[in-house]
Amino acid sequence: MAQNIIVSPSPHIYKRHSTQSVMLDVIIGLVPAMIAAVIFFRTKAVVLTLVCVASCCLTEWLCNLLRKKPNSLGDLSAVITGMILAFSVPPTLPYWAMIIGSVFAIAIGKMVFGGLGANIFNPAMAGRCFLTACFGTMMTTWTVPATIDPNMPQVGTVSQVPTVITQATPLALIKEVIKNKSAEQDEKIAAIKGIFKNMFIGSTGGCLGETSSLALLIGGVYLLIRKTISWIIPTAVLGSAFICAFIACELDPQHSVAPWIHLASGGLLICAFFIATDPVTAPLTKKGMWIFGAGVGALTMLIRLVGEYPEGVMFAILLMNSVTPLIDRFTKLTPAGGKPNA
Amino acid sequence: MLSQHIGAICKPVVNKRDHITTGQLIGNAEAFVSAPIYSPVNGTVKDIALQSHPVLGRAEAIIIESDEDNSPKQPCPDKFSADFDPRRFLPEQIFDAVRKAGIVGMGGAGFPTSVKIKANPNSPINTIIINGCECEPFITCDYRIMLEWTVQILTGVSLIGRVLNCDNIYIAIEDNKPDAVAAFKQAIQKMPSISGIKVVAVKTKYPQGDERQLIKSIINKNVPTGGIPPMINVLVANVATAAAIAEAVVLDNPLTHRVVTISGGGIKNPGNFYAPVGTSVSYLIELAGGLNNDAVKIILGGPMMGFAIADLSTPITKTGGAITILTEKEIGPAKRGQTPCIRCGRCIEVCPMNLNPTKIAHAAKHNLLETAEEYYMSACIDCGCCTYTCPANIELSGFIKTGKILVARQKKLMPK
User: What is the ipTM score, two decimals?
Assistant: First the structure.
């Protein structure tokens, strides 16, 4: 009996996974979107993502140093924040702006609350919100992917500079139709309908990692199969967005596009699978997840259809993040045996 | 050990240096919720002193030095035959025999069986579930006796049915043990005088052996929170308890022995042993060939709910169906770094009681006992699933257990 015996509370066996492995799964889930981004935006995608991830990690490391806390880079959550932030900005954004966004995302979005698990808002969305507030123009200037389809209809503002072609995103076009109800509306609606295939593959204008629905779906399905994320939030987000778009389409078919075009455009898919499912800022209970997801989908569509901005994912997420504690309180679980008779 | 069950601790009725014989009463149960204790061997009382106890830390025990010429008691399943008729015994006879034999729930809870089978006219039992589901992974003691003591168990089951005047009886066996299911079905056909016993295969999962989960699986009813199965007219008893009842009623043998599973990667020859209650863990380990070099944890009970012990002279009790010895490889790295809760909700998903473990555990950790109770801390069954599944390695179950102990202490200090 020479061995040292460990005494600790039960249970004595554990599932072999960790916060790190959960986060690693999310990173793997983002890889298809990364690949799509590299295909459509070439080196820009690589450099932007690297700048974002590096500055996020560096910020987290510095914050821990200042707070005299142990290094927490190992949980990989800063990498995810960096990737999602990079994926949700226009590819034309200068690097220095990206660095500012990353620093804000980690330092103010996460570390001031106490680090991973304590933040109220999704850090990447907080960072993007900051960028939108500071550099509004830059955040709404879009590049057409390098591998643009020559047959794609040229509508919207087309710049004459040969190296960088900027073009309105499908969502901006939809917004124009809704707001102006001008004579060219039919042409625009037709144009959007015409590029649905491009939207699915990803060769349209838009944010770095949001254009390819296919890649995001592959990543999302991977996360669902690995059970890294719950199926409830994506279903609720996409379901409620679909219903809202469907109602809009029924009410005003002339100025609306089909619901599936809405689902495939902008950040709705990356939101449904990667952003709204951020466990820290989403409710804990199943019922809460339904409410949260439905809220994100409905607010997104409300902003897209009625609001000033063409895209509403970011605000929808941040707004729903802020009510997550309330949702958790309202959806308190009842034990299997019912409430005890007090 | 004078505390082998839930309820009042027994009073020793022997003195130091007394010579005692097998089956002699050594600890008397005066209270109703209690069970007497008998000597499993011939021997001399060496001392009556405090001894390591798996749950209580230390408790009073009668230490018996066994005589050298002891002939060990053997299991006696062959003394029961298929033509047994429970109507040979009156309900009062059965109750008295069970009470006298000191039988307690042998699945692990250790609630005195006599209390459970005392007919309560206000809420009669209309469903009896015999629990043949192992309470935890690694444990196989119930499985072995189901195969080898089938008729004895059925005898005990029919006696429980007789004492409670109930013939709606289920024997629940996990579906990874089809041979045990078949053995029971065959044996029932050969026993003409028993009726109403149904054998059901239930899904193999942890914690299926918990009575609340089992009741839910079989009759799809929930035991009220804070309540007990009789409130919904159900009685759950373990197969080993049924076997002990058969022995007590038919052969008039007190409960002195039980089957213990010794398993895990840390033991040389894992197996099931028929051991006298009170045997020290170290002796049983010796019987099973000793420890392997990589054994790092010795657990009284199974890997999910068992108690890790440091003192190998700790004896097994009437409820201790297992000793599990785990290696470092099985428990994972010794130093599991705990990281912040990322609110992933996996603990909620696995909680069989539909609780919010992370909320309760964090409240308990920060001594916010009222918040913890608001989230129904007392409904927790300590199954450990939340800790098992937590990716942040938080000892959720440990915090909740501590919280429950703190609440119990508070209630003692400030009675209503």
Answer: 0.84
